[in-house]
């Protein structure tokens, strides 16, 4: 049985043409799959019975197996999804005041090996396919019953997407782009590019492509104010040092236009990157490269075996104040979902033990 989820619009049309049907059938299918969220061909009543039967016999719209779905006391949620090859991947819902973001994964494990990140300890196992990326959003919509026919866009809780889960999306570029184009398509799930943020650890040569191919918002896991510290905690910095990263960010921003800004994620690690001098270095960096920036300060969530601890509250506040004084919005992230390990850098299923 051939999987239809994950085919691009063009691929779906080609598939339908190949079985001798008119292209508008592909449009109908696309609508049923991505707008209505149907998984049963029999419910596609505007398609003739014989054709539905053919679809049923040859194609599948099945969802992946969700082996765990936890809802935290603060309403954040986590899904552990078992892929066909039994590997596991995690998706998280992070509620905000009235709405919230679905945080999706793009790889099983991650090759980047950031020292503060639990996923980094898993090493890269494999890239996710476009289908496996899209399905995470579909599973979340199923859980919250937020398909188009059920809830109007303005009332949806799952309003945003952040590509910030397991893996480095720019190391799985083609599948990530394909998946996001499906998610953004106006005839389907129709999640606007303004509501999607892609987060990278700094794959500099791909960053401008995000502006060209997707036009989504960009977040960069910066976490250090100079190459010395960044080399220590983020091995990717040895390949793409801060200068290359900032040049790429500037290019992204030039392509996206004046109103765009980049969010820099900055995990607060006690005694490592949390001094006032580091905040000043960050300010100089943004000024030097003329980058319109916002900082997200993330109190470090300790995990078993981690070599770091979280900065003291006093130091985090002082750090934020220095950045804000220089004109940079610098919210301190309230960690959501700690009790289900759904917070940043914890997406590895508590050392991948899902039992
Ligand atoms: S922080 Fe992101 S890029 Fe770094 S190891 Fe973790 S998942 Fe990979």
Radius of gyration: 21 Å
Show unreliable segments: 349-355
Name given to the CATH homologous superfamily of the largest domain = Aldolase class I
In percent, how much strand structure appears in the residues?
A: 15-25%
H/E series = EHHHEEEEEEEHEHEHEHHHEHEHH
Number of strands: 13
Listed once per kind, the bound small molecules are: iron/sulfur cluster
* Backbone shape: elongated
Q: Tell me the CATH topology of the largest domain.
A: TIM Barrel
Helix content estimate: 25-40%
- What is the CATH level 1 assignment of the largest domain? Alpha Beta
Helix/strand/pairing category: alpha/beta
Structure at a glance:
With 355 residues, the chain is α/β, with parallel strands linked by helices. It contains twelve helices and 13 strands.
Detailed description of the structure:
With 355 residues, the chain is α/β, with parallel strands linked by helices. The protein folds into two domains: 2-60, DNA polymerase, domain 1 (Orthogonal Bundle); 81-352, Aldolase class I (TIM Barrel). Helix content is 35%, strand content 18%. It has twelve helices and 13 strands. It has helices at residues 9-18, 23-35, 49-58, 130-144, 173-184, 207-214, 227-233, 236-239, 242-256, 276-289, 313-325, 349-352; strands spanning 2-3, 59-60, 65-71, 77-82, 88-95, 100-103, 107-108, 126-127, 158-163, 196-200, 217-221, 262-268, 293-299. The strands form three sheets. Strands 3-4-5-6-9-10-11-12-13 form a nine-stranded mixed β-sheet, with helices on one face. The chain has a two-stranded parallel ribbon with strand order 1-2. The model is unreliable at 349-355 (pLDDT under 50). Bound molecules: iron/sulfur cluster. The site of iron/sulfur cluster (SF4) has 13 residues, from loops.
